[in-house]
Amino acid sequence: xxxxxxxxxxxxxxxxxxxxxxxxxxxxxxxxxxxxxxxxxxxxxxxxxxxxxxxxxxxxxxxxxxxxxxxxxxxxxxxxxxxxxxxxxxxxxxxxxxxxxxxxxxxxxxxxxxxxxxxxxxxxxxxxxxxxxxxxxxxxxxxxxxxxxxxxxxxxxxxxxxxxxxxxxxxxxxxxxxxxxxxxxxxxxxxxxxxxxxxxxxxxxxxxxxxxxxxxxxxxxxxxxxxxxxxxxxxxxxxxxxxxxxxxxxxxxxxxxxxxxxxxxxxxxxxxxxxxxxxxxxxxxxxxxxxxxxxxxxxxxxxxxxxxxxxxxxxxxxxxxxxxxxx
Length: 327
Fold this sequence. Notes:
single chain, 327 residues, mainly alpha, 14 helices, globular
């Protein structure tokens, strides 16, 4: 099956769509719900107050379109950066496969929408290296990060990722760091000014991330253990293949991969570091984990092992579907 996605033909987008429909086949039998908390940012308010009352039976197709756009956009980004030996659609395939591993990810949630921002920010981070005029780019990155945090609070963990990326992409210049921080602060400045002028300044705390380390972890169900095992297996095996290929890359590509690795490590804390985040916040890890997991399907010349991993992931996805639908 993997060979269907290793070509560069436009027909592969159709294969990605068909795979997406298969991975989320439960949507043909039960509605795809909205799972959001209004206390996690603007996306939660938007979904609860405006989208959910009007969603109806179209939730499944909206979810499919969102996942498909994100998968193809990430695929085009990594292909444009030449982060694999050849251009293909294995990144999009991997993104679609991994979205079906957990019941908490098969819903329309703020984390699903926040991945649009994560992909957008990573695109801009890859342009920092040797950029002759980085100040505008840095200000825009800071602005996007702040807006993303306002929309979904667990994405505040992206702030140290962006600082790390700037530190390895460019030589230290105080003006550039100040520009980035100023971009991050500007949306909060306007928010605080608006609340102050309307005598609602105490409400500012509602738009700040609510950090909270859990004292007790919720036990995982069997389907979640299977999904987590499959997710970690795909990441660590992909990491092994990536390490073998990484030594042949130019410095810029190595820095891009390093940013992704740091993003993976930090965002893995998102379900635990914030109040009201829940397991759905782990969906944020997809943007950084998928490039490594896709190495399983992109690097090996022989397809026996990639096909085996593909069918194992698909089996875990089908079990997840069965748990959701409860045939």
